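Thread amino acids onto this structure.
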């Protein structure tokens, strides 16, 4: 049995999107010949929401080691809040001990705190262990460079300089790369010509049917209001185009039809910021489109099991996608598994678009750019009106297209990458939408 050290600073009971790939995969590593060991950061050292129910999904036989981090009170005056940065030294020393004590074969970084991936090259130099990086998001990205200054994240310029240098340094020694979108890998190969095609594997986010079984066993609720649309997940500037299309279609529909006037939309968990710092990002767009009275936004994140129950109890689901064409949201599979009527507004180049169509999602509308609003809004209004005619008896999406993206299948693909990291010459693989 081979051994993998998984570095994931966010880990249950922390409630953060970037730990779900690891969380869903942990029950399936051993059946693929790998014993997992997890290295993470103590929840109390992080300024992140905690969801105790997430621990229900972690197998009892997995070794999990928690490190500390520099206190926020010491680092915030210097502009450092990132838990990965604050825990970098403890993670390094704890990881080195775990690699030696457990005879680790491969280190696997699965996190959006990319700064911790520099440890892979340090451990490789000192201990000779290969490492794999999971690119769940872009690390160094120029996405915000042409956006107004007010739309850029805090400390954007400083973060760009750090990310550019650390990404290059880390990629110089990486053995294998996983990404949720082939576009992320193409960008990295263009940027760093030493990365071979054989080092790159596309493994999209997936979902676990077991998650719904666990959540609903503790209190599922039937759909009560067929006109209530639900979205659970991040908002923000990157979702603004899809949100404008959605709200413009709703405004136009309300002016034309009685059924649209009954529709309400609920957006939950739209900010990752602490409660005191979170600001609504979708409600202001709804107000600007004159549908603010029909839209409720709660920035507070809710527990994972509560989120699953919220999806299952919706009259219909709303899925809004990012302006980024390479964006491939993990929640698309969870939305499909929720088995509720589904409306989706996504970028035409997003990998989600084809999957949603093959799953026969009820309404799928795409846009080409941030300026592409009117046409998609008109299409959405027409298709949405047809859906409203069928509620509450509208069919749920098909699950046939989801089967290749369930946790057992995608964990098998991960384990193939881990094995390839031990071999200097490997063939390219891609786990993508089947024909």
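Threaded sequence (435 positions):
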């Amino acid at each position: 049995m081979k051994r993998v050290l998984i570095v994931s600073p966010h880990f249950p009971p922390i409630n953060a999107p970037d730990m779900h790939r690891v969380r869903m995969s942990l029950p399936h590593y051993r059946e693929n010949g790998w014993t997992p060991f997890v290295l993470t950061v103590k929840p109390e050292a992080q300024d992140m929401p905690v969801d105790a129910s997430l621990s229900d999904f972690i197998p009892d036989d997995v070794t999990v080691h928690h490190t500390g981090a520099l206190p926020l009170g010491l680092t915030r005056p210097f502009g450092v809040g990132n838990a990965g940065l604050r825990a970098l030294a403890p993670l390094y020393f704890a990881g080195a001990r775990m690699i030696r004590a457990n005879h680790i074969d491969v280190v696997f970084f699965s996190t959006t705190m990319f700064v911790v991936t520099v440890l892979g090259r340090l451990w490789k130099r000192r201990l000779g262990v290969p490492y794999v990086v999971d690119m769940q998001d872009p690390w160094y990205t120029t996405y915000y460079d042409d956006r107004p200054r007010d739309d850029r994240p805090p400390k954007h310029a400083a973060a760009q300089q750090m990310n550019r240098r650390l990404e290059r340094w880390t990629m110089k020694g990486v053995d294998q790369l996983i990404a949720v979108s082939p576009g992320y890998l193409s960008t990295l190969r263009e940027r760093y010509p030493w990365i071979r095609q054989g080092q790159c594997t596309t493994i999209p986010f997936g979902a676990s049917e077991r998650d719904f079984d666990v959540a609903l066993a503790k209190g599922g609720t039937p759909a009560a209001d067929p006109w209530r649309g639900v979205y659970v997940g991040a908002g923000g500037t990157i979702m603004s185009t899809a949100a404008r299309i959605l709200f413009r279609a709703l405004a136009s529909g309300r002016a034309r039809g009685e059924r649209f006037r009954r529709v309400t939309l609920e957006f939950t968990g739209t900010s990752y910021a602490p409660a005191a710092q979170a600001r609504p990002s979708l409600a202001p767009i709804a107000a600007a489109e004159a549908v603010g009275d029909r839209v409720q936004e709660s920035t507070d994140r809710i527990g994972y099991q509560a989120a699953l129950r919220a999806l299952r109890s919706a009259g219909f689901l709303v899925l809004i996608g990012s302006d980024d064409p390479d964006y491939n949201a993990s929640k698309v599979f969870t939305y499909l598994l929720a088995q509720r009527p589904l409306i989706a507004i996504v970028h035409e180049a997003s990998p989600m678009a084809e999957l949603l169509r093959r799953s026969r999602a009820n309404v799928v509308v795409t846009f080409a750019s941030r300026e592409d609003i009117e046409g998609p809004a008109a299409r959405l209004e027409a298709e949405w009106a047809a859906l409203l005619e069928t509620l509450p008896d509208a069919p749920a999406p098909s699950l046939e297209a989801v089967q290749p993206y369930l946790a057992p299948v995608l964990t098998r693909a991960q384990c193939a990458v881990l094995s390839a990291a031990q071999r200097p010459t490997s063939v390219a693989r891609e786990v993508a939408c089947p024909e």
